[in-house]
Design goal:
The chain is α/β, with parallel strands linked by helices and 404 residues long. It folds into two domains: 2-173, Carbamate kinase; 254-398, VC0802-like (2-Layer Sandwich), CATH 3.30.2130. 35% of the residues lie in helices and 27% in strands. It has helices at residues 15-30, 45-56, 62-86, 118-125, 152-163, 196-204, 212-221, 274-284, 313-327, 354-364, 388-398, and strands spanning 2-7, 34-39, 91-94, 101-103, 112-115, 129-133, 136-138, 144-146, 167-172, 193-195, 224-229, 237-240, 253-269, 292-294, 301-309, 331-344, 371-375, 378-384. Helix 1 crosses helix 3, helix 6 runs antiparallel to helix 7 and helix 10 (354-364) crosses helix 11. The chain is globular. It binds aspartic acid (ASP) and magnesium ion. The site of aspartic acid (ASP) has 11 residues, from loops.
């Protein structure tokens, strides 16, 4: 059988780990499998490369930054191929370009346009394990591009699809997708299966397990993705289409995030076109505005609050300074001490009683809810950052998600 595996930065973080993975792959090869192995850069290599660039320039050119960042995966790929050969398994490492990963021109956040797996297939035919550098491709101008942080997952899923395997396996430093962050909730439970939709929502609400774009890609092509530990030999969590298997809507997981900030605009004129003028510059600057609430207006004026990633605060405040002047807004304030806790599960928003139960559990725990947002499969509450861990635990218990 043809297997597509991906090993993350911590899984290939040391020489010893690379050698261990090579031994495991050798066994799979021995059993008659063909293998395509996508690797991330070792440990914190990508961060270190970015630091190097910043030592040279505050604004390194995106093209050169991609040329630099892509080296991380080429190192781990070459080392993995050497480790395989060292245990007697013929192997070859390929860059994104050699592996036929074609992307658009957006340096630093390129999207895969197409995959031409012919070189990979050729090498497999020769009996080689093919090790592919994740996170990178090549654009029409023949420049190296990278796919955005965490992009090796997307490389793996794209190759899984192009090669027609039944599932793509993502090996990482966690055992799978949990009902809540196991570092915060002691009895958090590993899920056996989760739908693409729920996984995307969990991830966007703070659960950092996989690159979102990899899940989206899997969903579009119906490619099963298994997330599992590279250190233990146990089944992980399979991300797949499960809507029919799970007809009963229920809370599947609790997600949280702390790295957000709330921006409030006071005394904003309430008339058509104003919201557009506030949010357009933020959107143009690539700032991802999450939850937005607008208060009922009083005598033609209203207040608007919204959340953004904490790293974008300075940029957002700078842009809003202009907006404030132009629109005669009275005050722009920012609160960095907010966090968000969300319950996620297919159909929960439309199931009576679930929202009320969530608010009741938080209320009983003395946690004040600042803003509320809902989607088809999520209910999220913005709360004080210091309450986040307590809130996650209270909801996890309250909805009975733990290991008995
Ligand atoms: N090495 C890249 C990063 O750190 C890509 C990846 O690990 O998936 O973002
Ligand atoms: Mg915060």
């Amino acid at each position: 059988m043809l297997l597509v595996h991906k090993y993350g930065g911590s899984s290939v973080g040391t020489i010893e780990r690379i050698k261990n993975i090579a031994k495991k792959l050798a066994r799979l090869k021995e059993e008659g499998n063909d293998l395509v192995v996508v690797v991330s850069a070792m440990g914190d290599t990508t961060d270190e490369l970015i630091d190097l660039a910043k030592k040279i320039s505050n604004r390194p050119s995106p093209r050169e930054l991609d040329a630099l960042m892509s080296t991380g995966e080429q190192i781990s790929g070459a080392l993995m191929a050497m480790a395989l050969e060292d245990v007697g398994v013929p192997a070859v490492s390929l860059t994104g370009w050699q592996a036929g990963i074609y992307t658009d021109e957006n340096a630093g956040r390129a999207r895969i346009r197409s995959v031409d797996p012919s070189r990979i297939k050729e090498e497999l035919k020769k009996g080689k394990v093919v090790v592919v550098a994740g996170f990178q491709g090549i654009c029409d101008q023949n420049d190296i591009t990278t796919l955005g942080r965490g992009g090796s997952d997307t490389t793996a899923v794209a190759l899984g699809i192009a090669l027609g395997v039944e599932k793509t396996e993502i090996f990482t430093d966690v055992k799978g997708v949990y009902t809540a962050d196991p570092r915060i909730v002691k009895n958090a439970k590993k899920l056996d299966v989760i739908s693409y939709e729920e996984m995307l929502e969990l991830a966007s609400q703070g659960a950092r397990v996989m690159h979102n774009r990899a899940v989206e890609l899997g969903w579009i092509y119906n490619m099963k993705i298994e997330v599992k530990s590279s250190f233990e030999d146990e089944p992980g969590t399979i991300i797949q289409e499960v809507s029919e298997m799970e007809p009963v809507s229920r809370v599947r997981g609790i997600a949280h995030k702390k790295d957000i900030a709330k921006i409030t605009l006071k005394h904003v004129l309430d008339k058509p076109g104003i919201a557009h003028r506030i949010f357009k510059p933020l959107g143009d600057a690539g700032i991802n505005v999450d939850d937005i609430i607008q208060n009922a207006s009083e005598s033609g004026y209203t207040d608007i609050s919204f959340t953004i990633p904490i790293d974008d605060v300075d940029k957002a405040l700078e842009l809003l300074e202009n907006v404030k002047r132009e629109l005669d807004i009275r005050e722009v304030s920012c609160n960095k001490k907010v966090g968000k806790v969300s319950i996620v599960g297919v159909g929960i928003q439309s199931t009576p009683g679930i929202a009320a139960k969530m608010f009741g559990l938080l209320g009983e725990a003395g946690i004040n809810i600042d803003m509320i947002s809902t989607s088809e499969i999520k209910i999220g509450c913005i709360i004080n950052e210091d309450d986040v861990e307590k809130a996650v635990n209270v909801l996890h218990d309250g909805f009975g998600l733990g290991e008995e």
